[in-house]
Amino acid sequence: MKILVIEDNESVRSMLEMFFSKEGMESTFETDGLKGYQRYKDGGWDLLIIDWMLPGMDGVTLCRKIREEKGTVPIIMLTAKDSESDQVIGFEMGADDYVTKPFSPLALMARIKAVTRRTAAAAAPEKNVTETRFFRINKETREVFFQGETVSNLTPKEFDLLFYLLQHPRQVFSREQLLEQVWGYDFYGDERTVDVHIKRLRRKFQADHYSFFITVWGVGYKFDEVENSHEN
Q1: Domain 129-227, CATH
Q2: Contact 111/76 with Cβ under 8 angstroms?
Q3: Dihedral angle sign, alpha carbons of residues 41, 124, 184, 159
Q4: For residue range 71-95, what is the model confidence (pLDDT) as tens digits?
Q5: What are phi and psi of 17, to 5 degrees?
Q6: Model-level pTM greater than 0.70?
Q7: What is the greatest pairwise CA distance in the chain?
Q8: What is the CATH number of domain 2-123?
């Protein structure tokens, strides 16, 4: 992985340089927003890590400039600002994630892995039609068939949640993961929203002796076509 870090704090740069070297990652460092932008133009980067406050060009402006030029490289912002409004600004400018200083290298690595997984998934060819024994769902036409019958009473978010779960059968998701993947970063609601939508899907999709939206206690939910379950 080739990482470009644009950060003017020497201690942060030294920490990241040692950590990335230990992890076998190739890292390049710039201390100025304008120089960082010119280095970004060299291309070939797998990830950008950009400090919010930079000389020459601040990190938010740099992030916006890259996105305006249709740059798709993942961007993680580093900042001492931790208010929700600041995070919203960073995301609106095109950042993929946001890490508040001070931070540990291991915490940053977790964010890096999450961002690169999401980016790889987004770049992969999307399968528009998903079929199981009981379900057939078409994302492009937003059609849902259950036991061969058309289902037309789903809300947009119920459809999105159903499609996501059917794409990942038997995979367990936490409420937080489902909020992130189905609702997105712009959703700041309570995690109980997921519970409400799962209950609605259970009411709308019922078959004798089968359950589909399974509670995994202490974790979250998964989709499976389970026979003889007493799931409510």
Answers
A1: 1.10.10.10
A2: yes
A3: positive
A4: 888 999 898 876 666 667 767 778 8
A5: -60, -45
A6: no
A7: 66
A8: 3.40.50.2300
